[in-house]
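Ligand-bound model needed. alpha-D-galactopyranuronic acid.
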Amino acid sequence: MNPAAVGCSAVPLDVLRAFAPSDADTSKDFTSYLEDELGEVTCATEGTGSARTIRQPIVVPPNTVYDGRGEKLTADVAAMRCDTSEGEQAEDQRPYFVLAPGASLKNVTITYPGCEGVHMFGDNTLENIVWEDAGEDAASVRSYFPGGKIAIKNSQGHKAADKMFQFNAPCDVTIDHFTGSDMGKLVRQNGGTDFELHVDLNTVMVTGVISAVVQSDSPKCYVRHHALTYQFTGSGDKSERVFRDVPSANVSEY
Ligand code: ADA
Ligand code: CA
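Prediction:
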């Protein structure tokens, strides 16, 4: 199959099924993700350019660009199982977007509630995205997704009570020209994992950081940064929290 040719002509869940992991346990999690967690999905490669409410996660097919043309999306709380309680941390919320491998997303504002934000299978570019009020997280890669290169550029994210960007599978992440405010962590590698994660922060400004700019428990987490500015909440020395638990030998400025 040539994934580039599929577009929205195929059943979106079938398109995603093609990327099931080979391991049996992980594959089970992947199936329950597709069938229970996502629920009914829609497929699209273009937005409307205006404000609208969405009731189903939008699957963007492999190697396709979804251009929102400046649209502002708001999730229907019931249909998207959004958590509107303090911190918005429920784990069964639905994502606004599911980016298949090689899919890109651009020119979209995600309003409140942020729910599960954007799910990235891998090799995805996100450009000119605004998260006005991130939910459980703004964008993430699940452990049963393929992972790969992730580029987030010219974007903004605000009010992530816990984490903005969450990585549960090996990725090479570039965050380029990003402004953010009020967040637990900008980047979180899933707690207790030791896979390889590369994070490049280029021209990033974050304020109101509670916990860390990048946090990882992995000896194979590597951070490069350029023109990074950050401001933590509260007083006291927070220097240990910038790249929290990342081996200092793995951090470099360029
Ligand atoms: C939390 C949770 C993880 C994972 C993560 C995510 O950190 O503890 O198991 O679900 O969120 O992917 O959002
Ligand atoms: Ca999440």
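The longest helix spans residues 24-37.
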